[in-house]
Amino acid sequence: MPCVPVPLVPQMPALPALPAAATGDLIRQMTEMTFSVPFVVNHRLTRMALAGPNPSARDRQEFMTMGLEKVTAFQQSWLAMMWAGAGISQDLMAASLGWWLAPWTAAPASRAMEVMHHAPMKVASAGLKPVSRRAGANARRLSRSVPKP
């Protein structure tokens, strides 16, 4: 009688597709930034070039706002990614606790794989949200003004 090996770990199902909401948010944010960032950079560089070595009070205010916005968006982005990572960590902990409670099933491992499968998309979307929001707001605000010499 031939000896047939019995797998110690049950077969895991295939990973599901990424949720449309998560991919849609990330694509929307990246598309918005694709169109708004070049416009904002062009507007501000033109304004800097026209201001020359002695910028007006309005120009100095815009340049200071530009620098503060970058720092604020960077901090908000890192904080959002940290919170998204904390949520993912909690989901993984819940999946590992499920493994301890029911080691004979593949459901907890499948859940952990699903969490890890969606993790990069969640973190990237959370990190781009403040930057995308700020870039879009700047493009709308700056489109109403024309750089003057």
UniProtKB/TrEMBL annotation:
InterPro entries: PhaP6-like
Domain of life of the organism encoding this protein: Bacteria
Protein name as it appears in the record: Phasin domain-containing protein
Native source species: Sphaerotilus natans subsp. natans DSM 6575
